[in-house]
Structure formats: C-alpha cells, structure tokens
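EI: anyone free to look at a 86-residue chain?
SC: sure, send it
EI:
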Amino acid sequence: MNFELATHLSPEEVIEKAAEFYREHTGLEIQVRGADRLEFSGAIGSAKIKAYREHGHTTVRAETDRGVGLDVTDVTLRFLYTIPHV
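SC: here you go
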C-alpha cells in the first residue's frame, strides 16, 4: 500500500521520527538508512519511508508490502498520524 502526506517538518526530522517510532513499536530491523529514506523489514512485513522537500514543504511517502490488517501497514498508518500535516 502507498501513502503520501505533506508536513512542515524537515526530511531529516521525518526520518529520525520514523526510526524512533518503528524502533519503539515494532520488531522491524532497518535495512537501508539514508538522509531522506528508511527501509524496514521483519516478521510483520516491510516498509519504505521517503521524505523530500518540494513546494515549500516536505512530502512523506510510505510504502508497505501488505494490506491493512494488524501488520506493517497498520504500524505505518499509526506513524503517519504522528507527523503534523500541512
């Protein structure tokens, strides 16, 4: 599933918040970490979080490999709700 939102946070802040949120709320391991992206995987699935500046705000894109149902997609949605939206 794919999700997108806009925020006033910087890409670096979004990536740091994602790393902290997934560390606290899942058993997922970070597979890839960059200045503007994170990729996680584990027993409940995999997720990719990307953040970049455009048009005066930060766009956050999240992609998961599962549908909704007590898995990585639900965790990802909960993470996205923690990000202030523009």
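EI: The chain has a mean pLDDT of 94.
SC: 👍
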